[in-house]
Amino acid sequence: MSKRDTVLRLENVARHYGDLVIVEEINFALRAGETVALLGPSGSGKSSLLHIAGLLETASAGEVHILGQPTSKLSDADRTHIRRNTLGFVYQFHHLLPEFSALGNVALPQLIAGIKKQEAEQEARRLLTLMGLGERVDHQPGQLSGGEQQRTAIARALSNRPDILLADEPTGNLDPKTSDVVFDALLNLVKTEGLAALIATHDQRLANRMDRIFVIRDQRLIEEQKQA
Length: 228
Description:
This protein is of the alpha/beta class. The chain contains seven helices and ten strands. The strands form two sheets. It has a six-stranded mixed sheet with strand order 6-7-8-3-9-10. Strands 2-1-4-5 form a four-stranded antiparallel sheet, with helices on one face. Strand 1 and strand 2 form a beta hairpin.
């Protein structure tokens, strides 16, 4: 896939809950290989927009195209297939399984997808090493720091080699120093793997490190220039 190909496109997307308008008239394109920041205060609709882009919520209006394919009329099974094979998700809280090691957590999505255990663990080890956790692969989440847990969750999100990473405040639960370490690792891995990433954050400083910045303001999505 060329760097200029659009991998995710939102076309006139809206999300309403009864009379409550969350977002409307959203038009947006994410290109292969680029990182885009999604800014906005709490309650502005960042999470809803990410959930729509990731086919976790259905838009009230409009269309979501993933790798050029419109998705509004797909079956639940087809939407699940896209989420499992094309999309990776990272949340503010890591949601790691406490009974599994870091290696086991990262390998699990591959095992569910039918990958052989040896191959799944080899890929998990590669991703964890890229995230700076090569010496921690056998540790359970309770033995890892908050930053290490979140880096493990990022590795897990990429274990099925998605085309698109969607991240919702991936460093929002961390102190500033740990946040920088995790974000450095995230950007490095995204670039290494050639992913497109849409990352919601409230941190202007982190947003300035991405290729483009969009802000949700008055239910609309607006592109902004980076701040000096």
